[in-house]
Write a structure and sequence with these properties.
GO terms for molecular function: UDP-glucose 4-epimerase activity. Residues 75-336 form the NAD-dependent epimerase/dehydratase domain. Keywords: Carbohydrate metabolism, Isomerase, NAD. Belongs to the NAD(P)-dependent epimerase/dehydratase family. There is one protein chain. The protein has 418 residues and is of the alpha/beta class. It is built from 13 helices and 16 strands. Strand 1 and strand 2 form a beta hairpin. The longest helix is centred in the first third of the chain and has 27 residues, at 29-55. The protein is globular and about 90 Å long. The protein starts with 18 loop residues before the first strand and ends in a 12-residue tail after the last helix. Residues 1-30 have low confidence and may be disordered.
Length: 418
């Protein structure tokens, strides 16, 4: 975390009070001599302190985050306190990247940052900046004071249902904030962008599986905001030598297999969150049961079909995209397993993973949802040599459930920044 030290105030030299004699004030000559001596001593000590401060290598040396170093790739991870962003930061740190996390903690968890800081305490490895990417001055200051080689831009609100209820929030948070990040990248000569996009930009295609050539026709503000951000990036890249990778990924599940990180959504957003989080909440008795919205879709069992991608596979795709990014070129890739599972099948897997017979309520469709979405990952397989290793939702849910059982209160850390 960046340290902003307050300037220390030096105490004023003690002033000796005069002694009153016969209604007139006369200074005590002995005290006057002591006063002069103390002033001279204070001046000498101040001079010595200034010399020591100037010669101190710690205070003289610039922050390693403010320098570009040969052999060291410094990655800005926006939204790095969030579920996916924190897992990406962990992978980058394990692979010896230098990482700066920027997050306003509106959806992320300071506890996840604390875990990463404890795992990688060495100077110059990881720093956390508490800032809002919607503040242009803050974004410019971050880029001015740090030398980034690449940006992984995860920061975004990301709930379909919420986007239909508060669309302006999504256009501000996703589209406008991406524009500010891109402007600062251009201004400060940061040459590589890995952009976190979504399959929601495709909407509800008539033909499955979805390829990168499938027409984008989003049907909710979340997907529309992401598509607008993509278009801004693509328009800019046409006259730029920036290396751009856009990853459109599908439904993310799972957690760090070593149990260090997991998914800890805000309690007030449980109604909007991922189905995996809702399943775990129901299994733990936090909510009375699971609500499945929509049973009349044109699918095998009437519930939505989704492509569930393990978070560790997803961040592996981001790292491979970073490694393969080329100046002046744009790569667009779907990140999924290539197969779909229905919501009913997913709930059954969650019951097996948790060992709890979760109560399920079947409700009407949720606005903005689509019936069936799964990917064709052949392009990313061929061009980035990436393939999903965890293709059974049950296995990913079992790993995530272990973290949930050990973290009943999430990370157990307040998000308040002092």
């Amino acid at each position: 975390m960046l340290n902003f030290a307050r300037p220390r105030s030096h105490p004023n030299p003690r002033v000796t009070k005069p002694i009153a004699m016969g209604g007139m004030d006369y200074a005590d000559p002995k005290r006057k001599g002591n006063f002069v001596g103390k002033v001279l001593l204070a001046a000498a000590l101040t001079s010595l302190c200034i010399i020591m401060i100037k010669q101190s290598p710690t205070l003289n040396s610039p922050s390693p985050f403010s320098l570009r170093e040969p052999g060291v790739t410094h990655v800005l991870v926006t939204g790095g306190a969030g579920y996916i962003g924190s897992h990406a930061a962990l992978r980058l740190l394990k692979d010896n990247y230098r990482v700066t996390i920027v997050d306003n903690l509106s959806r992320g968890n300071l506890g996840a940052v604390r875990v990463l800081q404890n795992l990688f305490p060495e100077p110059g490895r990881l720093q956390f900046i508490y800032a809002d990417l919607g503040d242009a001055k803050s974004v410019n200051k971050i880029f001015l004071e740090n030398k980034f080689d690449a940006v992984m831009h995860f920061a975004a609100v990301a709930y379909v249902g919420e986007s239909t209820m508060d669309p302006l929030k999504y256009y501000h948070n996703i589209t406008s904030n991406t524009l500010l990040v891109l402007e600062s990248m251009a201004k400060h000569d940061v040459k590589t962008l890995i952009y976190s996009s979504t399959c929601a930009t495709y909407g509800e295609p008539e033909v499955m599986p979805i390829t990168e050539e499938t027409k984008q026709n989003p049907i909710n503000p979340y997907g529309k905001a992401k598509k607008m951000a993509e278009e801004i990036i693509l328009d800019f890249s046409r006259n730029s030598d920036m290396a751009v990778m856009i990853l459109r990924y599908f439904n993310v599940i799972g957690s760090d297999p070593e149990g260090r990180l997991g998914e800890a959504p805000r309690p007030e957003l449980r109604e909007q969150g991922r189905i995996s989080g809702a399943c775990f909440d129901a299994a733990r008795g936090i909510i009375p049961g699971l609500k499945v919205r929509g049973t009349d879709y044109k699918t095998t069992d009437g519930t939505c079909v989704r492509d569930y991608i393990d978070v560790t596979d997803l961040v592996d795709a981001h790292v491979k995209a970073l490694e393969k990014a080329q100046s002046g070129k744009v790569g667009i890739y779907n990140v999924g397993t290539g197969k779909g599972s229905s919501v009913k099948e997913f709930v059954d897997a969650c019951k097996k993973a948790t060992g709890v017979n979760i109560k399920v309520d079947f409700l009407e469709r949720r606005p903005g949802d689509y019936a069936e979405v799964y990917s064709d990952p052949s392009k990313i397989n061929g061009e980035l040599n990436w393939t999903a290793k965890h293709t059974d939702p049950l296995e990913s849910l079992q790993v995530a459930w272990r973290w949930q059982k050990c973290h009943h209160d999430g990370y157990g850390v307040s998000n308040v920044i002092y």
